[in-house]
Design goal:
Mean pLDDT: 90
Shape: elongated
CATH architecture of the largest domain: 2-Layer Sandwich
Order of helices and strands: HHHHEEHEHEEHEEHEEEHEEEHEEEHEHE
CATH superfamily of the largest domain: Bira Bifunctional Protein, Domain 2
Low-confidence stretches: none
CATH class of the largest domain: Alpha Beta
Strand content: 15-25%
Structural class: alpha+beta
Helix content: 25-40%
Number of domains: 2
RNA sequence: GGAGAGAUGGCUGAGUGGUCGAAAGCAACGGUUUGCUAAAUCGUCGUAGGGGUUAAACUCUACCGCGGGUUCGAAUCCCGCUCUCUCCGCCA
């Protein structure tokens, strides 16, 4: 949620931001509701003040005295007036909340204009794109794929998009998780194990609800949501808490399985491991002081990039345009790795600044020593990294003439060998 | 899953219908005083949302786990829920 005061005081800037994000939302209706709401608050509160004052007087009167009984009569009508006003206020508050939850976060000035992914700006690229004459075999066409990934049985056991990782495949996935966590540890980012299910309040705080409800698996019986990313439990770890200024900046990372319904996806996007319903990911979350959050975003991106560099995978960093970034983000970089076999870029990381959009919903604050007031922290998060697509890039880019896959140097200690042989 | 007990401010803990936003103690912060690693003493000491102001001052309202209800009036009475603790059951 955006600071309602900012919307009230500079609606034009907000309008401009919403336009840049190409999101349909009625700001004027929200502002009107806000105005009505505040008017009614004043009314209700002054009625209550009157009631309170009368109560003090009544407390002094002897019970059952004529004055007392008389007072009860007048107070009764006041009481019912308050109740009526309360009901309309409640309705207004609900409308207000709904309207305000549907206002996106405003993009930072450095965010490029644009409607769709075609307008994203290539911010940086690294590594050599392998030449055309190499073997262009998409991983899903490897003839020995079944020995490391079993899609068929995954479909039998659960459904499409829930593959089994087998043997070297399972070990490679686990090696990547370990490698990413070890790297984070070395960088001084504390590791967390997180719950895989969260309640409604948590899903609301990080913005999955009400916006992306259809993307989450929902356990109806217990009203819990399977996490689509470790960001959700991690960010909610400090929900409703006031932090000490000296704790900031605070960095945490967590490995988790991520569950996504991916309703509406089809075609090339979902072939092989490109898009699955359950995947592993290591996620980093930062809680920082507002004035540092954009520098923190750059260092977060650089950290995630360093992982791809160590793996020797060619990638590019995209600065997302207004229309293609998320609802809650103010600025976002995506990292895409080049998959030679498919001749396409695969997104493996997304690093974002949310400013106070999440912390306002989640009520995560710190006491500012300068103002002496509680201020909202800025939150950021970034994948470091998502496993399956890195897995894909390693397979496709590492494919050798003899059909084996040469593994990145840094993974050799984890895998106990330097290549995966066809079986 | 069953039975019982409980949930009050940073903490401990009073408060069973009316000046209770809430006693008292501890902790914290500021001052004074004495001065050997501290004591005494005075004061301050929750959060949020309105109104107001250039900004303050000032002022109003809400909040005693959460949501309803009763009442002129609820921390206090009633109902539902959540969580914690103890016992029983089950279980990796």
């Amino acid at each position: 949620m955006i600071d309602p005061k900012i919307l009230r005081e500079s609606p034009d800037a907000a309008r401009e931001g919403i336009r840049k994000k190409h999101i349909d939302c009625d700001l004027d209706a929200a502002l009107k509701t806000d105005e009505d709401r505040r008017k009614l608050i004043v009314e209700v509160e002054s009625l209550r003040a009157e009631q309170k004052l009368a109560n003090v007087e009544m407390a002094k009167l002897p019970k059952g005295s004529p004055e007392f009984l008389d007072k009860i009569g007048t107070m009764k009508s006041l009481s019912s007036r308050i109740k009526e006003a309360d009901v309309s206020l409640k309705e207004l508050e609900e409308a207000w909340t709904e309207r305000y939850l549907n206002i996106p976060n405003l993009p930072h000035e450095s965010v490029p204009e644009g409607k769709s992914e075609e307008d994203n700006v290539e911010y940086k690229s690294w590594g050599d794109i392998p030449k055309q004459e190499q073997y262009h075999i998409p991983h899903y066409d490897f003839d020995w794929l079944d020995s490391i990934l079993d899609f068929k049985r995954g479909t039998k056991v659960t459904g499409a998009g829930f593959p089994f990782f087998v043997g070297d495949g399972a070990r490679l996935a686990r090696s990547l998780v370990s490698f990413f966590l070890d790297q984070a540890n070395e960088a001084g980012i504390q590791e967390m194990g997180v719950p895989y299910f969260v309640n409604e309040a948590s899903a609301m705080a990080t913005g999955q609800l009400p916006d992306k409800e259809a993307q989450m698996y929902h356990v109806v019986e217990d009203d819990l949501y399977a996490i689509p990313t470790a960001e959700v439990p991690l960010t909610n770890f400090l929900r409703d808490e006031i932090l000490d200024e000296s704790e900031l900046p605070l960095y945490r990372c967590g490995y988790s399985a991520c569950f996504r319904r991916e309703a509406g996806s089809y075609g090339k996007d979902v072939r092989g491991l490109n898009r699955v319903h359950q995947f592993d990911k290591v996620e980093i979350v930062k809680w920082v002081k507002p004035e540092t959050s954009y520098d923190e975003l750059e260092s977060l991106r650089e950290y995630s990039e360093s992982l791809l560099q160590k793996l020797g995978l060619p990638y590019r960093a995209l600065l997302m345009c207004g229309g293609d970034m998320g609802f809650s983000q103010t600025k976002q970089y995506d990292l895409e790795v080049w998959a030679v076999g498919q001749q396409r870029w695969l997104e493996v990381s997304s690093c974002s600044n949310f400013e106070s959009f999440q912390s306002r919903r989640a009520k995560i604050r710190f006491r500012d020593s300068e103002t002496g007031k509680n201020e909202f922290v800025h939150t950021l998060n970034g994948s470091a990294l998502a496993i399956p697509r890195v897995f894909v890039a390693i397979l496709e880019n590492g494919l050798q003439a003899d059909g084996s896959v040469k593994l990145p140097e840094v993974l050799v200690p984890y895998m106990g060998k330097d290549r995966i042989e066809p079986k």
